[in-house]
Amino acid sequence: DERIPILLELPFKHKGIMCAPFIGPVSISNYLKYGQIEQVLCDGENYGGARPCHYEWVKSLRDECEAYNVTFIFCGTGRRFYKDGKLYKIEEQGLQSEQAHLSGLSFIGKPMKFDLHDEWGYEISESYKKIFGTKCQRCGMKPICNGCSNCGKCG
What we know:
This protein is of the alpha/beta class. Helix content is 25%, strand content 18%. The chain has helices at residues 4-9, 29-32, 55-67, 93-103, 124-127; strands spanning 15-19, 37-43, 53-54, 71-76, 80-83, 86-89.
């Protein structure tokens, strides 16, 4: 409630909200109703002493986004994730992202249209093609990812 009103006043064409670490229930429907927020990202806490994230909190936030056709991406569960009263301890970030993907909570709303051009005025989006590796298929970030750079870090 402190920062989102400031975001809404800024003259940016594309606006999004990152809820991380997601350590308590959050409602943003009062801000989504204005139609300025295009995307909401949500991720649990990943560091030592990580506080838990609850499935119900994530689902509630996702439902608010869906009601306003705003893209919602559940990026990762965090190290401590509660679902149906059971605590899941997930230490590895890749597995946290995979579990977020498997939850089915991400929602693709109204598409964002970026009007990108190179130095000669040609549209970049027409020449750029996303490429995804094998592990990308189960990543929580895939719906908003620009594609794999083949850095070799994910195996």
